[in-house]
Design brief:
The chain is α+β, with helices and mostly antiparallel strands and 186 residues long. It has four helices and four strands. It has a two-stranded antiparallel ribbon. Strands 3-4 form a two-stranded antiparallel sheet. Helix 3 runs antiparallel to helix 4.
Length: 186
C-alpha cells in the first residue's frame, strides 16, 4: 500500500516509487475514476460503504474480463490481468483489468476473416465495452476488411485465370463452322 501526499488515502496496487511508471499509472487510474480512495477520518459507516464499493467494483471488473475470456476462446493469450487496490481491510480488490488477444493476421484471408470476427466478438463481449475494447474491435475490423479485399482479389484472379485456361477449338463440318470451348486445368 502506498500512502500519497494525503496520508489518509489508499492508493491502487502496492507501492509505487515516486516518478515511476507505476506511480503514473496509479495517478491515471485515479483520474479515470478507477482508483477509489478512503479517508481514515470518516466513520465506520463510510468505511463499510467504501468496502462495499470496492467489492462491487471487483465483481464488475471480473465479470467484464471473464466475458472477454469466454468469447476469445483460443485467441486469449493467458488469462485476465488485473489491477488491484488494497482496501481498508487489507484485501486486494480488482479495480481494472485486461485480456491480451492475438489479433495478428493469419496465412490465408479466409482464416484471417474467421479470426477477426472472433476478436471483434471478444472485444465487444462485455455489456459495457471500454474505449480500449472498442479500439481493439476497430483494429480487428480493419484487418477483417483487408482480408475480405484480399479474398475478393484472390477470387477474381482465380476466375480470370480459369477463363484464360479455356481452349477454343474451331471445327468445320459440312454445314458450316462450329465452335467448341473446352476447359483445361493447369
Amino acid at each position: 500500500m502506498e500512502i500519497g501526499s494525503n496520508s489518509s488515502a489508499y492508493w491502487q496496487v502496492g507501492y509505487a516509487a515516486p516518478g515511476s511508471l507505476e506511480e503514473k499509472q496509479m495517478r491515471q487510474a485515479e483520474a479515470n475514476g478507477d482508483a477509489i480512495h478512503l479517508d481514515h477520518e470518516h466513520g465506520q459507516d463510510e468505511n463499510k460503504d467504501f468496502k462495499n464499493k470496492l467489492k462491487q467494483k471487483d465483481r464488475d471488473v471480473r465479470t467484464h474480463e471473464n466475458a472477454h475470456m469466454a468469447a476469445a476462446g483460443g485467441l486469449a493469450i493467458g488469462g485476465p490481468n488485473y489491477t488491484y487496490q488494497v482496501g481498508p481491510d487489507g484485501e486486494q480488490h480488482a479495480v481494472g483489468g485486461h485480456v491480451n488477444l492475438d489479433i495478428r493476421k493469419e496465412s490465408t484471408p479466409e482464416a484471417t476473416i474467421a479470426k477477426m470476427q472472433q476478436v471483434i466478438n471478444a472485444a465487444r463481449a462485455p455489456s459495457d465495452p471500454s474505449n480500449q475494447d472498442m479500439a481493439v474491435a476497430a483494429a480487428a475490423m480493419q484487418n477483417l476488411q483487408e482480408a475480405r479485399q484480399e479474398l475478393a482479389e484472390k477470387n477474381k484472379d482465380e476466375r480470370e485465370g480459369k477463363s484464360a485456361n479455356k481452349l477454343k477449338i474451331e471445327t468445320t463440318y459440312k454445314g458450316g463452322p462450329m465452335t467448341r470451348t473446352f476447359s483445361a486445368t493447369a
